[in-house]
Amino acid sequence: MASPQGSRAPLEFGGPLGAAALMLLLPVTMFHLLLVARSGPARLLGPPPYLPGLEELWSPWALLLCLTWLGLQAALYLLPARKVAEGQELKDKSRLRYPINGFQALMLTALLVGLGVSAGLPLSALPEILLPLAFAATLIAFIFSLLLYLKALVAPASALAPGGNSGNLIYDFFLGRELNPRICSFDFKYFCELRPGLIGWVLINLALLMQEAELRGSPSLAMWLVNGFQLLYVGDALWYEEAVLTTMDIIHDGFGFMLAFGDLAWVPFTYSLQAQFLLYHPQPLGWPLASFICLINAVGYYIFRGANSQKNTFRKNPSDPRVADLETISTATGRRLLVSGWWGMVRHPNYLGDLIMALAWSLPCGVFHLLPYFYLLYFTALLVHREDRDERQCLQKYGLAWREYCRRVPYRIVPYVY
Ligand SMILES: NC(=O)C1=CN([C@@H]2O[C@H](COP(=O)(O)OP(=O)(O)OC[C@H]3O[C@@H](n4cnc5c(N)ncnc54)[C@H](OP(=O)(O)O)[C@@H]3O)[C@@H](O)[C@H]2O)C=CC1
Ligand SMILES: CC(C)CCC[C@@H](C)[C@H]1CC=C2C3=C(CC[C@@]21C)[C@@]1(C)CC[C@H](O)C[C@@H]1CC3
User: Any transmembrane segments, and where (predicted)?
Assistant: First the structure.
């Protein structure tokens, strides 16, 4: 089995054992959340209300619906784009090209769904089939990861990712072997990272809102807030789609089970947990508290967007007047690191903003259940781990300059805390 620099790349995620555990634990957690969200006590840490049989999980219609959704998003991806962006330089010095039409895909999906609903499409029935849909998405992710693994067997060594080529089948299947698997210009990882899962997430939220309106006459204020906040988040990700080309998922990680399952199943079915919870456990929320929660979300978004835009502007053009006055450290690679502005406060200000928003998404669900705070807990763990991985990659890339940055900006995510 080809292992370009696999023997040198340190194993992450606890190696093959950790990868195997995660492959089991992630789907189990997702189904647990789906089941407890609709149960009376909605206990995150308690047992699920019952164990569903295969007849409740498996539905050919759900599979067909998932495949149709993927087909629709793939067709929208292939439509002419307002811009074609170039990715980071690859090992063979080439750069891949990516269509920037994610926001257009979101708008066209909204139009199609709007037309469908006005023609009688029963969108509000979607929450009833979340379980078989999640099962179908998991099945698709497994089969897709297997195909990606097989495709990587015939890929040239230069196309393989630095991490997922250890020679251990389970570990490599989980992390992904090929960096940018494509058929012609269709980039599977880039497509999955931003389209079917993220747009699917807001569609599920909308369906939950519509079902709540049918059940109770109108959607609750809490449901409006959760829908609005998460739509803003997804709209932002698609509006600034080009920024995803510099994330570690695109430039470092292979495309395997972790991202395929994460993008296609985990995001739509667990990130919509707050809206699922609210449908079955309505929460009273007055305007004063709602305004305060909006303020928290706005502060989080301000930090998240400010930090991401500052770095992206700087990376695109360091002499842009918006960032030209910021203090920087030079590195041996020729690239500079920001040490003032947002990136002078903590080393990952964008994560801080993201976490503040995560809190605002849970607060409309009240404080008497832990379940809607699952996203905040999971996301904290994800970002702490991600921050650690990114630091190791930056230390490797920038060496002494990175150490100097860490000395000048000692906190990672939360000022004076962490
Ligand atoms: N909702 C979700 O599930 C998730 C959301 N996210 C969000 O996605 C966004 C992107 O996150 P992610 O890709 O992890 O990381 P970042 O956008 O923070 O990118 C990290 C990279 O930024 C560059 N960098 C770091 N410090 C500096 C500095 N001081 N000056 C200039 N460049 C610097 C380095 O790359 P280089 O020097 O090569 O440019 C580093 O590798 C974040 O807002 C995050 O919160 C991420 C994961 C999951
Ligand atoms: C649960 C698993 C162990 C890991 C799954 C991780 C994925 C769900 C996330 C990995 C990086 C992601 C990013 C986003 C969504 C979640 C995943 C796919 C964003 C697209 C979210 C919106 C932001 O504006 C950009 C993010 C980039 C990374």
Answer: 17-37, 57-79, 100-123, 129-150, 255-273, 285-304, 355-384
Ligand 1 center to 27 CA (angstroms): 26
Q: Tell me the pLDDT tens digit for each residue of 247-260.
A: 989 988 999 999 99
Q: Residue 4 above 50 pLDDT? A: no
| 3-class SS string, 139-201 | HHHHHHHHHHHHHHHCCCHHHECCCCCCCCHHHHHHHCCECCCEECCEEHHHHHHHCHHHHHH
Structure tokens at 149: 């693994």
d(CA 270, CA 411): 30
Using one digit for the tens of pLDDT, what is the confidence trace for 322-351? 999 999 999 999 899 999 999 999 999 999
Neighbour count for residue 114 (Cβ, 10 Å): 12
Pocket test of ligand 1: the residue of 202, 259, 346, 354 to mutate, having most ligand atoms within 8 Å of its CB, is 354
* 253 pocket-lining for ligand 1 (C-beta < 6 Å): no
